[in-house]
């Protein structure tokens, strides 16, 4: 009979191995799914994982990986700090939107004036926009004990309405023939978050994501706040005795994750996306939750996980186009990744043993 | 010796010919904003793609990607199609406009066709349909059929496309029924069954017995069916499964003929950048079968209207028409110009309520 025995200590080996095993299991079962759909599974897996990196057109797709991965990493880093402390910000999507709206609004307020300080101001405004939106659930939780999961999630829908309103009214392009959407920041030099080196995909958002990874690593391993975050998550009672003030930690964690999500939104709207539009947000804030867990809430893990998710998106679109795989199959494939990760997580905390059933 | 030379050159010619045929296979890409199974907007574009496959068989290869978000994702998908040798790419959502222009700059030898936008380039055409002509037919039926004299309208976003539709439907409903009144709910979505159902219910509660929609799901049809004695019209696709009642007719987007013609133009080398805005006459806007729930005389009036719009003897915006604030817009017999229609941002006289902006 198969039994699960709780490990006295979480297994370090399994903790590192599960993401890899999960990826392999996803390839295996995803391959089966593709085979059932009548596609060559090996070719499908190769198209998704290999072609964007080493295929014929990799010169184009590699920079795209940075473009797609940077917002995921930036948001996931912020979320991971809170998740480690048991503070659940589910509304990064809304904070991402608010960062984009506020940042773009500051830039557009200067249009068509050109000056070096416009983009830095937009960056600050973007971070503040995301931070302020995250402060709503933070304040309500600290003051009234509301559930931050619900409040932050509901605020996503409000942010989406504000986004529609911005696209149709206060940020609408006056030269847009009445169509929704703001001016395109890509054609406004002072506000354009261009590639730092043309064609590399390396824009300021990618730089910010890398800085955030290092910053989070140092914070968690070298700083008192990082210790408090970990302690609160792992042993809340001990944290209390150690003098951790929960209210301050809530404000801090939600604030950082909101600001980083806002930054991600600003870098996106001023760079790759270019304009505030009704459908500006494409789910980075929600996907980042998967990225954070796939990366084991560890900064470097998140970096790798963000890259992997970006790969499945880009490879998935290539597979649709070249192999005729339906979009839904690609989504199932991505879902499998999280499913296997969570399922295999069991092995970190439990040992599987085979034992004879004793006859009573 | 001669014979061998002959054979060799024949074989070479054949080889060259087959090689040329393989290279001649025209590759056409389609970028979709929704899933092909949405039953509305994207579904109809994919029907258009299938029409291309049917028309040219082995001479074309079509590829498509569904659920492509507007913005950088769409730019990447278009670039990928262009890199992989597409000759012609249809980008089927308004939000793909700037990405289409960006990618077109990088691939001057690839032709692009952007739906519903206004920016063109030497290798970028735009195309859209005069859906407001369909709305005129719809308004004629709605005005005749309503008993409460209240017609409910589910607007998506307050943009010219939608406002044109509301105005056209209102003008023609009013023409056959001077007491008619429009109630408009803005759903602020193109596709959200839950929101659309709520909007339909609110309108029905306010006394509407006709529901017109500019959103793409069948949820309003279901809500009308549940309420009973309310009629609806299919939007974007036929939605025939809700006939003969509540769905009494529909406006169908028929992209097939256009897609076939443009693919043919690429094959002939006659492709040029154009701005196409076709209506019922060219077959881009189809009117779905008018069901038996509509009395014969009303059906005839609707078909007469359709025929007049198709042969160009009647324009859906023919004066006298005043703007909502009472100021004159079109004099008696004057017809609207395309520029005003393209940027239409006002209601016509008689419609209550403001355009949110």
From TrEMBL, chain A:
| Major place of residence | membrane
Provide this UniProt record's keywords sorted from A to Z: Cell membrane, Membrane, Transmembrane, Transmembrane helix
Top-rank taxon: Bacteria
| InterPro entries in the cross-refs | ABC_transp_permease
Q: What compartments host this protein?
A: Cell membrane
Q: What is the topology of this protein in the membrane according to its UniProt annotation?
A: Multi-pass membrane protein
Membrane spanning stretches: 12-37, 57-83, 95-111, 117-140, 149-171, 202-220, 249-267, 328-347
The molecule here is called Sugar ABC transporter permease
Annotated organism of origin? Parasedimentitalea denitrificans
Automatic annotation (TrEMBL), chain B:
Q: Which residues form a coiled coil?
A: none
Q: Which InterPro entries match?
A: ABC-Purine-Binding, PnrA-like
Give the signal peptide as a residue range, or say none if absent: 1-22
Q: Name one Pfam family in it.
A: Bmp
Q: Which UniProt keywords apply?
A: Signal
Q: Which CDD domains match?
A: PBP1_BMP-like
Gene3D superfamilies, per the entry: 3.40.50.2300
Keyword Metal-binding part of the UniProt annotation: no
The ABC transporter substrate-binding protein PnrA-like domain extends over 25-296
Xref: PANTHER family? ABC TRANSPORTER SUBSTRATE-BINDING PROTEIN
Name of the protein this chain belongs to: BMP family ABC transporter substrate-binding protein
Organism this protein belongs to: Parasedimentitalea denitrificans
């Amino acid at each position: 009979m198969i039994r699960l025995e709780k490990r006295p200590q979480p297994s370090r080996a399994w903790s590192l191995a599960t993401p890899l095993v999960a990826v392999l299991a996803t390839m295996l079962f995803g391959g089966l799914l593709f085979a059932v759909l009548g596609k060559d599974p090996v070719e499908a897996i190769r198209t998704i994982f290999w072609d964007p990196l080493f295929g014929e057109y990799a010169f184009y797709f590699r920079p795209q990986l940075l473009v797609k991965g940077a917002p995921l990493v930036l948001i996931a880093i912020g979320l991971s700090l809170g998740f480690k402390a048991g503070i659940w910000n589910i509304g990064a999507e809304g904070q991402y939107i608010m960062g984009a709206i506020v940042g773009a609004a500051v830039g557009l307020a200067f249009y068509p004036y050109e000056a070096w300080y416009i983009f830095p101001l937009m960056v600050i405004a973007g971070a503040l926009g995301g931070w302020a939106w995250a402060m709503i659930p933070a304040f309500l939780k600290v003051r009234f004990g509301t559930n931050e999961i619900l409040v932050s999630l509901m605020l996503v829908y409000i942010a989406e309405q504000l986004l529609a309103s911005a696209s149709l009214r206060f940020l609408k392009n006056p030269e847009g023939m009445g169509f929704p959407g703001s001016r395109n920041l890509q054609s406004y030099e002072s506000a354009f978050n261009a590639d730092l080196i043309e064609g590399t995909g390396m824009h300021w958002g990618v730089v910010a994501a890398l800085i955030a990874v290092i910053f989070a690593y140092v914070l968690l391993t070298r700083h008192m706040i990082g210790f408090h975050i970990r302690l609160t998550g792992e042993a809340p009672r001990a944290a209390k005795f150690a003098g951790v003030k929960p209210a301050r930690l809530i404000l801090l964690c939600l604030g950082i994750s909101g600001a980083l999500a806002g930054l991600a939104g600003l870098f996106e709207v001023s760079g790759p996306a270019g304009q505030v539009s009704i459908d500006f947000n494409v789910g980075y804030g929600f996907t980042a939750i998967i990225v954070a867990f796939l990366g084991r809430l560890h900064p470097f893990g998140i970096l790798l996980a963000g890259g992997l998710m970006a790969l499945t998106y880009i490879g998935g679109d290539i597979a649709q186009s070249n192999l005729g795989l339906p979009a839904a199959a690609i989504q199932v494939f991505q879902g499998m990744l999280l499913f296997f990760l969570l399922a295999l997580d069991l092995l970190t905390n439990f040992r599987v043993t085979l034992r004879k059933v004793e006859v009573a | 010796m001669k014979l061998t030379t002959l054979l060799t050159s024949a074989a070479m010619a054949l080889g060259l010919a087959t090689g040329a045929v393989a290279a001649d296979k025209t590759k056409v890409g389609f970028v979709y904003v929704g899933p092909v199974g949405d039953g509305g907007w994207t579904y109809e574009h994919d029907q258009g793609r299938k029409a291309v496959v049917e028309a040219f068989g082995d001479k074309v290869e079509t590829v498509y990607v569904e659920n492509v978000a507007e913005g950088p994702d769409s730019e990447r998908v278009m670039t990928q199609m262009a890199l992989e040798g597409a000759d012609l790419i249809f980008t089927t959502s308004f939000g793909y406009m700037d990405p289409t222009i960006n990618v077109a700059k990088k691939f001057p030898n690839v032709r692009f066709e952007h739906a519903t936008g206004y920016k063109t380039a030497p290798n970028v055409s735009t195309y859209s349909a005069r859906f407001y002509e369909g709305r005129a037919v719809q308004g004629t039926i709605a005005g005749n059929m309503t008993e409460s004299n209240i017609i409910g309208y589910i607007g998506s976003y307050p943009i010219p496309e939608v406002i044109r539709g509301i105005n056209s439907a209102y003008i023609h409903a009013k023409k056959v029924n001077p007491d008619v009144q429009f109630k408009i709910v803005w759903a602020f979505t193109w596709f959200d069954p839950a929101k659309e159902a709520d909007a339909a219910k609110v309108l029905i509660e306010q006394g509407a017995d006709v529901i017109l929609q500019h959103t793409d799901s069948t949820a309003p049809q279901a809500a009308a069916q549940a309420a009973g004695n309310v009629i609806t019209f299919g939007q974007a696709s036929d939605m025939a499964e809700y006939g003969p009642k509540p769905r009494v007719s529909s406006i169908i987007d028929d992209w097939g003929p256009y897609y076939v013609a443009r693919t043919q133009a690429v094959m002939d080398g006659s492709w040029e950048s154009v701005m196409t805005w076709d209506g019922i006459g060219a077959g881009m806007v189809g009117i779905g079968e008018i069901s038996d729930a509509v009395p014969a005389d009303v059906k005839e009036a609707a078909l007469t209207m359709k025929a007049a719009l198709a042969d160009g003897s009647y324009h859906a915006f023919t004066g006298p028409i005043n703007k909502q604030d009472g100021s004159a817009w079109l004099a008696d017999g004057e017809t609207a110009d395309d520029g005003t229609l393209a940027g239409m941002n006002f209601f016509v006289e008689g419609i209550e309520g403001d355009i949110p902006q």
